[in-house]
Amino acid sequence: MQRTIESLERIIALGENLLTTFDIEGLLTQIVKHVKDLLEADGATLYLVDPIEKLMISQVILSDRVEEIVLKVGNDSIAGYTALNRRSLNIPDAYGDLSGYHPSLKFNREIDEKFHTHTKSILTHPLVLRDELIGVFQVVNKKGGIPFDDEDLRILRNFAVIAGIAILNARLVERVVEEQTNANDIIEHISEKVIIQNLEGEILSLNHRAAEDLPPGISAREAKGRKVVDLFPSLAGLSGEIRKVIDHNLDKTFSGGKMPYVILTAKNSRQMIEKIILIIKEPANHHLPGPPPATADDPA
């Protein structure tokens, strides 16, 4: 019990770092390293589950020789059984008879033969969060040649909760960054002027087309932090509409008048507006040549 309490203190300390690590590859490596250290094992592997292909792919293997392993989710492998049944396994002898767990279950000795290792004891645990199967921990060979015990399983189960949250957080951040990158790429290349401002009306960013209309001598970088109305006086008439959007916490508003525009909002997790996105579409005749200037010979 004392070891469990000490491990909980370590897990809490480790969790602070894991929950603020958003580089998914670095995070997974840290997670498996901590599992190996917490359980005092010779090796550890984290399999992530592909729910569409029904496959488990080893993301991180902390072992001197073993490389990537791909398994099916099924009862014919130890990690696959753990994933399919969402059940932990504590196997003291990997080469022993495993039919008591399932008639098809057996240890794949080819991995030991291929990488010149010898697996003795195995402890597995499914990584499940909010009823979603994320992956499977597989820890092998407790140091000292002794089998894993119930305390080891409790430690692994406790750590899996923090690890699952950290992985989902990192995946979410990765998805947001990817979506933001795609959105920025679209904004940069559309023909309309796009200006992103904060709630105080200060420019956060603007696309290439909007930068073309900045006052002479001011670059897009220098425009950041300046008031939109100071650098784009023609947009001063939109201040009232922007204020209405903010005051009523709207998602968007638009107009198709003489200066067509769309005002979009970016909201935080509490659904409160953080940014205003102005999209200004120039009138269809904006770039058309006007009538030639009058000359002295033209009739009045």
From TrEMBL:
Kindly give the SUPFAM superfamilies that the UniProt entry links to this protein: GAF domain-like
List residues of the GAF domain. 23-177
Q: Which Pfam families match?
A: GAF
Residue ranges crossing the lipid bilayer per the database entry: none
PANTHER family, alphabetized = CYCLIC DI-GMP PHOSPHODIESTERASE PA4108, CYCLIC DI-GMP PHOSPHODIESTERASE PA4108-RELATED
Query: Know the name of this protein?
Result: Adenylate cyclase
Native source organism of the sequence = Candidatus Ozemobacter sibiricus
